[in-house]
């Protein structure tokens, strides 16, 4: 069974305004209290925690989601002194690196916790759903690129194959991604195997990491394209990626918010929170509650602040 597309991360702010506007009454203090009273007790307890307690691992060291699949900390622009810093290609590269880091942090969170999950427990289904969200975000992101963004860039650049290397890299790990998708969607929680999950992630992870890093340089190469035209095609691709109506806001939005790291420096500069803290808090209450158990495995809280992983693998794994 194929998972539905997720909403693209760059559309979270717009979607957040839509969701919170529709849910404003239920998001008021009285509305939230009434809504929370209708939730199961386990959900009420989960929602009352701003973040899970810190867990120690590796002989007292806290385990975070920055390894083994390395995050992107620079776009490579400092090695290109002739690059026009005000060209939209740089902003596009930074935005894409931020999205890619969200994926890499989710991948690391899954890899570093998969062996701690026992079969047929309340946590098993939640962990499988967390990985379903990871798959859906990767698939949605690459579909947006191949169906909308890359063809549009090809038109404005005058070279239809300008982004072909990235499509080729997508195909390079297609089998590994499909194997991962089949396991996380078809496995009964009673039959879950942390060892098998780890093996799947070890097959997929290095190829995905390599691609997510490589793509940033190809975006910087677009500085030869008209800056405003490039900005226009990315905006068009954003709108197209969230217009098919198949998104699950209760999964897509919390997953994106709790897997990004707003403190991570890129080219020595922070990325401003997107959306802001107020919207994030409202989204936590309006769409975060339904799968509240899933976000325990996320590497950040709803504000995008990184936190130690809650269920790290055994230290001898």
Automatic annotation (TrEMBL):
Coiled-coil residue spans: none
Name recorded for this polypeptide: Hemerythrin-like domain-containing protein
Pfam families (UniProt xref): Hemerythrin (PF01814)
Gene3D superfamilies associated with the record: nmb1532 protein domain like
Classification of source organism: Eukaryota, Fungi, Dikarya, Ascomycota, Pezizomycotina
Cross-referenced InterPro entries: Dimeric_xanthone_biosynth (IPR053206), Hemerythrin-like (IPR012312)
Span of domain Hemerythrin-like: 95-220
